[in-house]
Amino acid sequence: MKLSPFLKVDTPTSFRDHPGVHSILFYTDINLCNLNCFQCHNRYFFSKLGNTEFMNYEELSQKLSMAKLLGVELVIVSGGEPTLEPNLEEGLSFVKERGFPIRLDTNGTNPKKLEKLIKNRLIDGIALDVKIPLLDEYTPNQKKRFKRILFSEEEVSDRALLEYTKHVEITINLIMKYSLPFTILRTVEYPLLTGEDKSLISESVKSLPHQFNPFYPVEE
Ligand code: SF4
Fold first, then answer.
1. 190 Cα: distance to centroid of ligand 1 (angstroms)
2. pLDDT in tens, 7-42
3. Residue 148 needs a FRET pair 20 to 30 A away by CA distance; which of 36, 71, 73, 211 works?
């Protein structure tokens, strides 16, 4: 049986992942991501599980039938960075054909792929992580801190930082253009973010639903 793009992992359904909506969470390849954020929680979670197998389509079908019985209203697809997954469209179509709306969780760096998914009606919402203030230029101190947040190191080119900003801004414009129902913007309260950084982030997303999430350090 063909493998789906979603990892084989048991996650409980919840009303927390999308506030007030009964949802179930699927993950694409956890290591397939173009960022390497400071203490990435998803990677940590999977390193503890020690399992990186994918569900086949029969297993996915069973899981979705069970979700239907439990009254799940929304499928959330997280990663890794799901837009980098080559078989994503096929997996999303499979889920949509079974009647579930889908929210895609993204770091916002692949707006072209996101727009294609929206136009093909494969997603019904986007959870976008806005990790740093979106500015045209950064001070040396900001560069150091923001590179550590996005790449876990400071020895990354300034270009990579500005590319991140440019792509996330395009993604925000897409979110405003299409106004999908299950959309939310989030910022992890990394300890490296100052109060001023958080104000700047709030300012750049003020017309959209946005929340700050507490940072829980991963244990090593
Ligand atoms: S974008 Fe998400 S999955 Fe990728 S490194 Fe950052 S926190 Fe982890």
1. 13
2. 999 888 999 999 999 999 999 999 999 999 999 999
3. 211
